[in-house]
Amino acid sequence: MRRIAVVCREPSGESLRYAQAVGELDDVQLLLICDVHDSAQLIEAARRMAPDALVTPQERLLEPVAIASEALALPGMSVATVRRAIDKSLFKRALSEGGVGTARDRVVWDAGEARDFAAAVGYPIVLKPLKGYGGLATWRIRTPEELEIALQLTSAGPMLAEEHLPGAEVCVDTITIDGEPRFHSLCTYQPAILDALENPRIQWHTERRCREDKMGAFQ
Question: How far is Cα 42 from Cα 61, in angstroms, rounded to an integer?
Answer without folding.
Answer: 10
